[in-house]
Amino acid sequence: MKVRLFEIFTSVEGEGILYGTKTLFVRLAGCPFTCFYCDTLDSLPMDSGNEYSIQEACNLIDEKLENNTYKVNFTGGEPLVQSEGVLEMAKHVKSKNIPTYLESSCYDSEKFSKVLPFIDYIKIEFKTPDAQFVDSKHYLKLIRNALECLKDSVASKKITYIKIVVSSKTELETFKELLDRIFNKVSKDNLAGFIIQPTYGIAEPSLEKLLKLYDLVFPFYNEVRVIPQLHKFIGAP
Prior knowledge:
The protein is of the alpha/beta class. It has one domain (2-233): Aldolase class I (TIM Barrel), CATH 3.20.20.70. Helix content is 32%, strand content 23%. It has helices at residues 54-64, 83-95, 109-115, 136-155, 172-185, 207-217, and strands at residues 2-12, 22-28, 50-53, 71-75, 100-104, 121-126, 159-166, 193-198, 225-226. The protein has a nine-stranded mixed β-sheet with strand order 3-1-2-4-5-6-7-8-9. It is globular and about 45 Å long. The mean pLDDT is 97.
């Protein structure tokens, strides 16, 4: 089995509920989607990065691991594109008693279910229609898969949280419709967090927009947080 990796590096986690933690990032190459605000464009081509055997990839993880690393984050690209590779690398990391973390759009619930047993922290990133992730014809299929992944993650008692990237293009009505779908699927008591993440450097939302989005989430989940990509403010990758 082969896996294609774009890069492996240690940095400070700048997003989500574990921001500020020292993290080894394993960025997998390849993503077939088209979010307009993507900040890792170089990793999107399926032939980007370098190809490794699973053993070579695990050896590379061992070489790059630093003392006091809080977790290993499998990211992309879109890591589920190479779900079998993620599964094998996550097994290896867990054998070293280091927490594993997956950040994904969860576009494929079958692939997700295979990886899930070997991941400790799950960040499920729900996309709004304005993200241009997929065309409108395929958007509902994407959301159905993400909701199924959310349900499975919670049922497996994983530490699960939601992130939604918002921009000046985000429509309040469609955002509210997405919230209704999410909280019809899971209870707020089963979530470890709900993060609203504003875009950075492109179509940035106003404070007024962020407060309105916050107010939409609050009745469902009053621990909602607005958190930008903090690593960008300290020049971290």
